[in-house]
Structure formats: structure tokens, C-alpha cells
Amino acid sequence: MATPVETSISSITTLTCSRCGQPHDFEVQQRVSSCCAMPLLAQYDLSGTFSKKDLQNREGTMWRYQEVLPVLDNKFKVSLGEGFTPILDFKNLGSIYGFANLFLKDEGKNPTGSFKARGLSMAISKALELGAEGCIIPTAGNAGVAMAAYCAKANLPAVVVMPRHTPKAFKEECYWYGAEIHLIDGLINDCAAEVRHLNQDNQLLDVSTLKEPYRLEGKKTMGYEIAEQLNWTLPDVILYPAGGGTGLIGIWKAFQEMIALGWLKDNVRLPRMVAVQAENCRPLVDTFLGLQEHSQNYKGLPTLANGLAVPRPLGEPLMLQVLAQSGGTAISITEDEMVEGVREIGRKEGLFVAPEGAATWMAVCKLLKQGWLKPEEKVLLLNTGSGQKYMENIEGRY
């Protein structure tokens, strides 16, 4: 059994503005950049002192990559065992549709049942390290659950603001973790407005998507894991359900860091990244396709995939940058198609995925028909959460 490392050896050097590059002090709590009001990105010393061999005998969680994570003192690490989720070979669906290499990384195996555990573990750990007195979050569901759980573990007060129509399972779990819950009519942007109202004195740390630097650092560990679990090779295509987009941005950041570390070859062909959204709320798709200049005035509708109901993502410029650099694309999936995807994955692969994860499979089917995807390519889907929490959304839609 691996023994957890007791002292942190983080190589973080600074935080930089994602728009202009201006450095910010990582030793004090930061939110968005002071220069451009844009997300801050953690930078590390990647001169090569951290090697693949260092991973041997480390714990099977995201904290195995501690040199490129921001926590300075491990006594502040707030962990429930998140990360190192399995990559499953979808041989049955692959044989039906002609794919030789079709895989899915199942983030539903994380604590609290979703990939949000990664980001909130990291954000709450840094909040504790930097002296936060409590945390507040606007959420479509899973992020609020994760924040409530990790705040409970850290003995920090938690305030969760979520849409009233959020499935009961998410609300109930937050209550059981002891969080203060506020229910709002509207989508996550309306919840964000309520967070600003409730937290006018800034007594609580707002851990909204990309409004602090460290949720991204937890999410990026998916990228490290994908490379390590595939023996330091990468898929040709990765499909990711993008609401706020932290995971999409984080996975790409991890690939860049691994190139700098020498873990991936300089001439490695990086995956084409696909951002998958709901037809009911597709701000990034519309901007990507040139249907709008940006999403700052976009109005979305609720969707079965609660995590995709993010009409005005702060990280849109970074997501567009990932799609451009990777030669990727953005695509939207209807509500009925998501249900079809949940059904097909369940009946063919024995996995009950969230509607967000089902959307990535339906995107594969569409892109295959369009010729954008080739059957011989190595394709990886991301399922971001357990389907169990969405029973209320998809009840009776067998």
C-alpha cells in the first residue's frame, strides 16, 4: 500500500493573468486578476526536477502530482481520496460503431460523485492555507455538493446558492454536509448575482468557476492522469462536457506542463479537444461558430445536464484558445439525444453516466457521421459525474 507523502514540495512560482500575463502574488488569497479581471493561472518551476519516477509508490489520488500543485504545506491538504479515476475500454460500443480504440474516463468515481471533487479539494485546501473564514459558491449542482463536503472536512462554513429547479439529490446532499443553502429562480448566473449580494463584505471566499486560481489546478490533474494511465501516450481526440470549462482548460494546461517537464515529447501530437454543450445552453458553441461576438449577453435555458447550464462562462476566451490550439471543435447535444446516450451507454457498457457524460458519446456519433472523427482514431470521452444524482431529471424516460 502506497504511503502518502507528508510534506509538500510544490514548485509554484507565481500566478499570472490569463489575458496579459501580469504576475500576482501566490502567497496571498487572489481572486481574478487585478489588471484585467480575468482568471489567474498558476505557474511552476518546470525545469525538470520532477520526474515520472517520482510517482512510484505514491498514493493513487490526484495529490501524487504535488510538485505541480499549489498547496505549500500538506497539513492544509483537504482530501477525501479524489482522483485517479479509471479509464474504461468501451469495446461493445466500439465494435458497434467501428472504433478500435474508444475509451471513457469515469469521473463519477470521485468523492461526492463528480469531477468537481478535484477542483474543490484544491480550492478548499488553499482557502484553509491562506486563512479563509468560510466559502460561498454559485452552483448548478455538483460543485456545490463538493464544496459543502470539503468545507465540512476542513471545518469551514459553507454557503451554497443553486437554482431552485436543481434535482433534489444535490440539495439534500448539501444539507447533510451542513451547508447553508439558498435556492434561486434562474440559472447559475442568477445564483452568482445572489452570491455577490450575500457576500458584499467579502467575508467568505467566493470559489466560483475561475474566480479563484486553484479549482483549475485540481481539475488539471485529469490531464496528468490521462497521460500516465495511457502509458505516456495521448488520445487523438478528447471530448469534454464544457459548462464553465475549467476541466477543458485544465487538461490542456496539464499537457503543456508535461511537455515542459519532458514527460511528453516536444513534437507530440496533442489531442484535438472537443467542447460538448447542451443545445439548451450553448454559449461557447455560438461564439465558436461566429454566431455572436462573445457570450456576455447570452441567455440560456435549463437542461437535463445541470452542469452545462452556464450561459456566460468567464473562461470562454481560454476555452476558445484550447479549441484553436488543438484544432478542436465545439458541438451541442439536445435533451432527447442526452437521454438516448444515457440509455445506450447503460445498456451496452453497464455504466450509468450523467447526462453530461452521455452528451460526449452523442457528440462522437455526430462527429463520426460528419467525417470529423475517424473510426481508427483513439477517442477518449469524459463522464463528469454519476447518473444517480440525475434520476429526477430523467425519470420515466427509458
Folded structure, characterized:
With 398 residues, this protein is an alpha/beta fold. The protein has a domain of 205 residues: Rossmann fold (3-Layer(aba) Sandwich), CATH 3.40.50. It contains 13 helices and 13 strands. A 6-stranded mixed beta sheet has the order 4-5-13-10-11-12, with helices on both faces. It has a 4-stranded parallel beta sheet with strand order 8-7-6-9. Strand 6, helix 3 and strand 7 form a beta-alpha-beta unit. It is globular, with a radius of gyration of 20 Å. The termini are far apart. The N terminus is likely disordered.
Strand percentage, roughly?
A: 15-25%
Would you state the CATH class of the domain at 87-111 and 215-394?
Alpha Beta
Q: Which regions contain 5 or more consecutive residues with pLDDT less than 50?
A: 1-5
Instruction: Please tally the helical runs, counting DSSP H or I stretches of 4 or more residues.
Output: 13
User: How widely separated are the two ends?
Assistant: 42 Å
Mean pLDDT: 95
Broad structural category: alpha/beta
List the helices and strands and how they pair.
Layout: E1 12-17, E2 23-24, E3 40-44, E4 87-89, H1 91-97, E5 101-106, H2 116-129, E6 135-138, H3 142-154, E7 158-163, H4 168-176, E8 180-184, H5 188-198, E9 205-206, H6 215-219, H7 221-229, E10 237-241, H8 246-261, E11 272-278, H9 283-288, H10 316-326, E12 329-333, H11 335-349, H12 355-370, E13 378-383, H13 391-394
Parallel strand pairs: 5-13, 6-7, 6-9, 7-8, 10-11, 10-13, 11-12
Antiparallel strand pairs: 1-2, 1-3, 4-5
Helix pairs in contact: 2-3, 3-4, 7-8, 11-12
